[in-house]
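Lab manual, section 2.4: Encoding a predicted structure.

Procedure: take the sequence of the chain (111 residues), apply the prediction step described in section 2.3, and record the output as structure tokens. A sample record is shown.
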Amino acid sequence: MESFLVPPDQYSIYNCAQLAQTTVAKQTRARELEALIAKAGTGAGGSFASAVAYRPEYYQVRGELNELRRREAEKNCKPVPGAATAAGSLESPALGAGANPGVRQEIRPIH
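Recorded output:
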């Protein structure tokens, strides 16, 4: 789903340094959104608020990260430090490695 939200040539003119800088910024934003999604899930109506307020941006950021990684691979750029660990935490908000372990939240698809 994320790939539909990102133009395929958005990062085609970036060099390796620009790709790395943008990747770090997008990873940071994705972690912030994961925390907001997890926090919203703990309150009444939180799942709805999360779906409306945070998930669309979260999916777009994930799509951008996928496109950035693809471009980095095409250009044979050095891996961004922390990218391997960050990728693991971006699998599923509130259920993956970046989730709050004390909070269990059901993730439903957005229709």
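Check your result against the sample. Confidence is low (pLDDT under 50) at residues 84-89, 91-111.
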